[in-house]
Specification:
597 residues, seven-stranded antiparallel beta sheet, 11 helices, eight-stranded parallel beta barrel, 33 strands, single chain, alpha/beta
Amino acid sequence: MFKPARLCFQARPFTYLLIARSVVLVLGLGFCAACSAQSAGNPPTSPGDLRDDRSPWGVATGAEWLNDYPKFNPMLRQAGIRWLRGFYEWQTIQPRPGEWNFVLPDRLLENARSNGLHLTGMFAYFAPWASADGGTRRFPIKDIRFWRDYVAALVTRYHSDIKYWEVWNEFNGSFAVDGSPEIYAELVREAFISAKKIDPTAKIGMSVANFDVRFLDATIKAGAANHFDYICVHPYEILAGLRQGGEPAFLNMTTTLRKMLDANRQSADTPLWITEIGALAPVKRDDVEDQAQAVALAKAYLLSIVAGFQRVFWFEARGPSYGDGKDHGLIRSDMTARPSLDALGVLTAALGAEPTSAGWLDFGEGAFAFAFNNGGKAVLGAWAGAKRKVNVVFDGDVRLLSLKGESTTLRAGDSLTLTDTPVLIEGLPAALVEKARAQQKQPFPWKVDYQGAELATLLLGERNIGTGIRSINQDTTIADREWRRLDFSRSDKEGHYVYFWVDPQFAGLEAKSIEVTTVVKRVATDKQAGLSIDYESSRGYVGTDYRNIPASDAWQELSWALKDTSFAGAWGWSFRINAISSPNEFLIKEVRIRKIR
């Protein structure tokens, strides 16, 4: 993964990022919804295949602490985890041509097996002797035959224990310098062919950083079509968007992926995985921020199961600090469990080893309620949207289970106040269980159909009001009753940006021409200010020309015609106001998007 910035919506370059985060592999020093995938359940596993099951519960481990797996694997097992993502690099396993050293991966596999964990494999990165520049990340490879031999050696040795293999890690990021969709397509295709010759049941996955659907699309078109078995994404920014009501965007990921696969004539039931997702927590105990990580984790797993992701891997098991006193780990560096690990144990115990989505309930505006099937027992996961509270009353007694594992009984007729912290509800009245099941294939009540709309709008202020557009990462601006002001006082420069997400039913991955209009005003007539627009296009994130805001006390409308928008939310946002070149802050009152026919 990439090293996270202090904020999740950090200013991004328009090419694929070259900022390194921690890696899921390790060198081995020393000893060696109706429109969502509600309709796409977990594909069946092969009868008697001990390498596989239907469990979604996974954890990924980072490079810094992989060798601590003897300590954290038992903790993961106790929390109900069934899958572990982490493996050793090519250069560790084959340090020189013809010389193989399987000591470290053998030990890792044996420990995973002893803790009841399925291990997923990965083909990455280069052995220096196989790379043109003598390193491990820069392309091209000297000879593709080296890659074939490496894949064949791993599958030959581990096919009895490892069924799933990812090709590289975040190839669209900093781990593949001078890489391209064409190069990645060749690696995927050759890995698929080599692995299947040895083990026809092996499964080969493609992986991208964040939610870069365009890179996956380009790779398939470049030659990977029909040479992969599953898709892996790492939607950190989309998870971060849940703090401001981003549940619809999260649920829509599988819809976007399946539309892309369908457009490329790939299998409609291709399994979709999240092999990295996470949220930061302080290195030292902080009850508020630790709880926020636990809340993010609970929503990540619950929404992923509902959306139709087959498997989810929280990044990471034990977490190092990236220099700002925070990390993603379920376990602190002193091997004490964070509340997020406890919350994960609550989820796996309540929902069971192999939960499935079993519909939804409408508890009113601002509430989310999803039913899950745990071996025939219904469990409801419910919470209120960001900064909301929703009261719910049941006709019968129900059992409430908090993310801390606290259990209470709610009597019939008593009110339950939902907050943004998920609560698990057991013992639901039979009528509610049946209602949830009957609605499983129906559109979610909080998803509005914008397909036929010509205009999407957002009014900004203390409480934003939007149709088809949502403001995200709102703390980059300061709210007034009827407008918001950019906040240049922030040391991280994020106060120079205002981020927006566009509902994909209005404008999605398919290229469209739209007009973006901003209603803005200078803070004072003598305070010069201006802006441009950064947006997702068929070429990735790109920017428009810069416009000055006229000197006036009146609100001004500035518009840009964007000819090639392609909104997938790769980095969590569709477009943003960019004021990095503005000498002063300004006010923003409204944003509108109009389709250009």
